[in-house]
Amino acid sequence: MKNASTRSSPGDPRPAIHLRHAAVCALAGLGLAVSVPAAAKVEGDAIVLGAAVSLTGKYSTNGKNTQDGYNLAVKRVNEMGGVKVGGKAYQLKVLYYDDESTSARGAQLAERLINQDGVKYVLGPYSSGLTKAIAPVTEKYKIPMVEGNGADRNLFTQGYRYMFAVLNTSDYYLRSAIQLAAEEAQRAGKSPKSLKVAIAIENDNFSQDVRDGVEEDAKRLGMQVVIDDKLPPELNDMSATLAKVKALKPDILVVSGHEKGAALAVRQVAEMRIDVPMLALTHCDSAQVIEKFGKSAEFAVCGSQWDRTLGYKDRWFGTADQYAQRFEKEYHYEAPYQAAESTAAVLAFADAFERAGSFDTEKVRDALAKTDLMTFYGPLRFDQSGKNIAKSMVLYQVQDGKFKVVAPSKWASSKVIYPAPAWARRK
After folding, report:
1. Residue 260 DSSP code
2. Which of 177, 195, 233, 343 could pair with 73 as two cysteines, CB 3.0-4.6 Å apart?
């Protein structure tokens, strides 16, 4: 079966439609219709969710992770009999559009999903910027949205009542790296105030928030920020920043630029033989730094929303590791946290539908607000702003070609190697 795909021609105002092969096959295997509905809400025995995700453009890698996470959740929920509402079992179904990694298109497609397709429940896009574009639309129409990939904390200061996020806010992604460096300094008999921090980030909402969290914790601990650079928009060269790192010798270099930023940092730090005690990154797993760069990625420290070694468990997937195994069997690559948090967003909806006992959007919204659910991804419980206040970030380090959790200590599988060995001492 070929992908159903409709492209807009020049001058055609209709947005492009992408129905991914995996989703179509999953539905076909369940005996469901795969045609795009004229008015998607609850169709017979199917609950229709809508999503605009980045299938093309700069976020396409993480957009695919997001969609794969959604599709795996839908497939698993449906395999287990769907969701039961009012004594009847319903299957889940997702209508997808490609937002092309642009905020304007994302907002346009949210309007289309709601006004033309009749969707009453929305799954979030990839990235904080696109979530910021879509949230005002879903809020205007009072449509519940569960998202797993918009982490900018500013999203949760707008008073939104219909947006719920299963992930931690982005200012927490690398705070734990700063704390970990402070703890290691103290173990070595040094004051955290003696540590110097270098920051290099992409100029987007997510990365700016990562930077702010790092700066706040560095300031709280008395550390000095000696470099505070913006990465170039093309994310193809950070040699100017690395020259400053070589000269100023910071104790920790923090880089945030989604998967392209992570790949760029690992590659150029290795090429330029930059000795820095800790290289802290976001998006290591989706950037595939181990697979692409091998030993050059050793000792990189990475913030993550989730890891397969965590002790979480649910009724759909079992343990975090069992989820990862199922994901890899389905999609033939290791499960990144972007996929895991996307799967958790679907599970939040499934749980809310059953507790609401209704497809009324207000009742579903109220059920989401009262969520108290354990999943393979972690606990879900939302505060009044829609943030998940029940789970923690994890920090892992590349050790012997594998990601090893080094913080928080409750979940740690290894001790952090700090300072990282100088390049001259590496094999």
Report:
1. H
2. 343
